[in-house]
């Protein structure tokens, strides 16, 4: 493969094959039922093949399609186990793998970005990528001064492919909504569009990474690799080797799960106060546990600018919900435009809706589980329930959308880890408005 398929018609046809393929397999499944296979056998086969196609199509296209798959992958903990198992493996693959570019294409990008004599800046350069992501892939190399480095190279055509994908994926949002009932897909796509335009310029990513690396330099809990060099389509940073969170999710000891979850929570809530930025790409592929016990954080292409730290309003809302101060909570929600102007909603219903979400803060330690997250998704998605009706009366103002997505993504990882975390102490320390 030399570059991302750019042609909009070609890419749309591949994306369209997802729902068409699902429909075809459903028809085929009915045929198997007629010849005697059980419903369970047929359902299992359909899910497995659909998951396989999901990875194949999104992985090949890269760009916005793969980025969307990565965003969905952190929500898989909210999907009931009997439905999620095949998708879990397929989506998790998207967090760290994709068909690679050929070496000649990589060399062409490096020459364009670092100059014709780019090879002289390295003592060694491995043409085989060490990792691949949505709009770029990473190569291991040795910088001219002997430092081991990671060289992230953007796929040629990523800009055209990205915008085309996000436009086409909007058409298929209902299909993906069925896979991830706990996520609001259309707002997720709209927000991804804004963020991924920023991610196309690796100089912005390098700027974010430098800010995080400076803020966490010498930190005993978090490691951020330093940037060595950057260009619009290439960023070179220090190489790090650690245990990916995906590996810990798969077979980590409980103590390791708890440690990783605690560090992730601390990083999520502390970084806006320390850096004025929020790391906005929460999926397991962007975090590793180092041999010395620190959490290594990579990939800073998506970041929310929060110069004043996390909004105080969120802390106030959380505290009022915990303390069942329903009238004050509803007044705050209305004042901050979290309630639709044309909606009538009872204060007690708002507390009942938000209460389970703040459950992790009611005790000194809370164990995040897939079952807990699934219960929340089912509760707010039950068309017959009061929580569903309450949710339709609420609104998420645009300035809170990214923070909400990142927090939900981090929560999804905690549930995948099954981590027990001192969440209340972390939020009390870092979330303005909660404890003050």
UniProtKB/TrEMBL annotation:
- Start and end residues of each Protein kinase domain: 124-436
Keywords tagged on the record: ATP-binding, Kinase, Nucleotide-binding, Transferase, Ubiquinone
Q: Keyword Transferase on this protein?
A: yes
For this UniProt entry, the molecular function terms from Gene Ontology, in alphabetical order, are: ATP binding; protein kinase activity
Keyword Transmembrane present in the record's keywords: the answer is no
Tell me the domain of life.
Bacteria
PROSITE patterns (UniProt xref): PROTEIN_KINASE_DOM
Family annotation (InterPro entries) = ABC1_dom (IPR004147), ADCK3_dom (IPR034646), Atypical_kinase_ADCK (IPR051409), Kinase-like_dom_sf (IPR011009), Prot_kinase_dom (IPR000719)
Q: CDD domains per the record?
A: ABC1_ADCK3
The entry sums up its family as follows: Belongs to the protein kinase superfamily. ADCK protein kinase family.
Entry protein name: Putative unusual protein kinase regulating ubiquinone biosynthesis (AarF/ABC1/UbiB family)
Species of origin: Kutzneria kofuensis
